[in-house]
Design the sequence.
């Protein structure tokens, strides 16, 4: 039988720094700007310190369930750094790095995971979405936001992020599919940290890469070393520029390893192989960048110490603000349900407030 | 002024808002060139262009999720689900995001969006095309659920739904899409949401219904009148949040209630109305509350659908029983 090939694809992998922090090819201009690279190193250090503090708050009963980004810092910080204030972020629960970069404060993030929706009433990034908890719904939201931006002729990009496990959901495909058809300006980040809670990547897909899922939507899919912040930022900048200028969507698979539990409610030692994890620690993004900075005489132990002290102060100040934030009253269950509370629900609001007052009086 | 059907009224209201509000955008499967499988969007793409009346890919969750994203940017999307039986993939987006966004962001992001869906039985449709699952949506706080029963109400309520700052599920009783015509002036005047309509005043019994069943209910009221029973008929129209004040006022006047719905009986809007009446007006009741509904069964394929659906006779039987109670 004679056939012709009607379509074929290839997926490009991007890496600039190897795990020893050595360039694997000619670096982009920003990577030679040591102030910039020190800033990215500090951003990752802040995220790591913030995560550690959030974990401690949860362990001491001062905050609820929290998903950390340990080992995956280069992804959120990398693409977050490629965003402008005018771009829109549609985060999922492990987008802390990008959220911080886009102006969402540590206090707001703590307030959110501390069980108060007020944390999603962002003071700066007013158009960014609250964290998407159900898996993959955010992919479609990003396309919807991008459609509105496109209809209004604005030059703004939309970023969203998902775990590799989330790409098994229908909403993931529905969202990237329509972005392809309508040529929407979205950057779809896939954090491939090898784990969907306890389910490893080989149980999630028969594809060689997650990036190639983009091919089925007719959009560009690329793979980056997600532990190499230079690669993440470089590829993200390309994708954001393309998105802002009518070039359409890009799917970026960033390969990393989840060095933490899925969340504070998880215990990865039940399923993760300690030897594999030990190897993964050798690949993590901060060591790599530090080695690069040191090789360029742009970092010292003294710098490290000073940075850590500064960061600890910032994180502590955010925790203090979180702990001192006013506790939500029961009226907040009702006051933002609709523009106007229905007549039928008004007595419930009054009853809830009275009960709370009574409870306060009894103390 | 022209005499138009319910579906023409839906079309006219959407056209009015497309004309007067540049943020209104309409999309769904087959809504563009084809004008919708029922023709609800007939002619709109031709008039308002492919940018604003958009044929979307075939994926219901995507349709609802796009509406969430677009509305969060201040657009006013009207998204069509081709049949309510296919709305379930979109439930995730509607329940988890559309209904909650205002609350989740303390009012920072709001979603002025409408999801339209033809629903209900009686047109000999394929399987999954005839169910009445309105109660599922009415159960979710943060949504409004609106069901017009006639052309003028479809026009006024659709305008209100599009202009409402919160998500509205607009369910269109397709059996009565073309059953009657009303003189409807295309003047952009909306009807209030969260308001029942008293379609017939009476003093002996309150008949409560919504959607297509309003037609059987009004016919039953006329027959009861011939028997000397003066029925008041209420069209609930917005089934969530319900205007209970109008219903309670009527019940306090008549003391007798019959609720008529096409949906299965248990856990339904009828159940909720009966419970509210029991809580707030039980001492006004002269007889137990009666209910005429679909059965607690799977909506049957069309050979049995007539036996499933409430009829004028079933309403009459129940109303007479309620009137005879001493």
Sequence:
């Amino acid at each position: 039988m004679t056939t012709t090939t009607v379509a074929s694809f290839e997926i490009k992998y991007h890496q600039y720094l190897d795990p020893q922090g050595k360039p694997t090819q000619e670096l982009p201009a920003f990577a030679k700007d040591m102030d910039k690279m020190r800033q990215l190193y500090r951003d990752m250090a802040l995220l790591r310190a913030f995560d550690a503090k959030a974990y401690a708050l949860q362990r001491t009963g001062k905050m609820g369930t929290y998903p950390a980004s340990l080992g995956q810092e280069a992804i959120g910080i990398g693409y977050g750094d490629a965003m402008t204030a005018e771009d829109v972020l549609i985060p999922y629960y492990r987008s802390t790095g990008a959220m911080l970069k886009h102006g969402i404060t540590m206090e707001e993030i703590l307030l959110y995971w501390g069980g108060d929706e007020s944390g999603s009433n962002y003071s700066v990034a007013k158009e960014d979405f609250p964290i998407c908890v159900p898996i993959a719904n955010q992919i479609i939201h990003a396309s919807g936001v991008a459609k509105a931006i496109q209809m209004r002729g604005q030059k703004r990009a939309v970023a969203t992020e998902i775990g590799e496990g989330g790409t098994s959901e229908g909403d993931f495909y529905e969202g990237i599919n329509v972005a392809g058809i309508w040529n929407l300006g979205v950057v779809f980040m896939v954090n491939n940290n090898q784990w969907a809670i306890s389910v490893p990547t080989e149980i999630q897909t028969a594809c060689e890469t997650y990036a190639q899922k983009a091919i089925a939507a007719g959009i560009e899919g690329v793979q980056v070393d997600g532990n190499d912040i230079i690669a993440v930022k470089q590829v993200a900048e390309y994708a954001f520029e393309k998105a802002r200028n009518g070039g359409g969507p890009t799917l970026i698979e960033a390969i990393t390893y989840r060095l933490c539990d899925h969340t504070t409610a998880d215990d990865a030692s039940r399923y993760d192989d300690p030897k594999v994890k030990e190897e993964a620690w050798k690949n993590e993004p901060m060591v790599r960048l530090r080695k690069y900075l040191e090789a360029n005489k742009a970092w010292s132990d003294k710098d490290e110490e000073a940075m850590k002290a500064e960061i600890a102060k910032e994180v502590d100040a955010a925790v203090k603000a979180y702990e001192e934030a006013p506790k939500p009253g029961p009226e907040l269950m009702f006051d933002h349900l609709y523009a106007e509370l229905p007549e039928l629900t008004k007595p419930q609001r009054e009853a809830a407030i009275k009960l709370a007052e009574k409870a306060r009086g009894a103390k | 002024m022209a005499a138009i059907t319910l579906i023409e009224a839906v079309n006219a209201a959407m056209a009015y808002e497309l004309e007067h509000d540049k943020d209104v955008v309409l999309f769904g499967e087959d809504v563009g060139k084809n004008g919708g499988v029922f023709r609800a969007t007939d002619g709109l793409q031709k008039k308002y262009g492919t940018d604003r009346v958009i044929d979307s890919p075939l994926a219901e969750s995507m349709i609802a999720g796009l509406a969430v994203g677009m509305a969060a940017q201040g657009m006013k999307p009207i998204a069509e689900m081709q049949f309510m039986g296919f709305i379930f993939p979109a439930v995730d987006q509607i329940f988890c995001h559309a209904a909650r966004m205002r609350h989740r962001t303390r009012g920072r992001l709001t979603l002025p969006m409408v999801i339209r869906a033809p629903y209900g039985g009686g047109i000999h449709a394929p399987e999954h095309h005839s169910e009445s699952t309105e109660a599922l949506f009415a159960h979710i706080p943060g949504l409004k659920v609106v069901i017009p029963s006639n052309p003028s109400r479809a026009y006024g309520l659709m305008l209100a739904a599009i202009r409402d700052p919160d998500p509205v599920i607009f369910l269109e009783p397709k059996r009565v899409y073309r059953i009657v015509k009303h003189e409807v002036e295309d003047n952009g005047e909306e009807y209030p949401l969260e308001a029942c309509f008293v379609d017939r005043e009476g003093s002996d019994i309150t008949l409560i219904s919504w959607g297509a069943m309003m037609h059987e209910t009004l016919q039953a009221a006329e027959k009861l009148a011939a028997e000397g029973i003066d029925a008041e008929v209420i069209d609930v129209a917005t089934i969530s949040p319900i205007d209970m004040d109008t219903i309670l006022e009527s019940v306090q006047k008549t003391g007798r209630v019959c609720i008529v719905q096409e949906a299965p009986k248990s856990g339904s809007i009828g159940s909720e109305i009966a419970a509210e009446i029991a809580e707030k007006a039980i001492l006004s009741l002269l007889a137990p509350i009666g209910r005429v509904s679909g059965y607690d069964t799977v909506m049957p394929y069309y050979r049995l659908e007539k036996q499933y659906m409430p009829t004028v006779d079933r309403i009459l039987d129940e109303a007479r029983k309620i009137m005879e109670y001493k």
Q: What stands out?
A: Chain B touches chain A through 46 residues (CB under 8 Å).
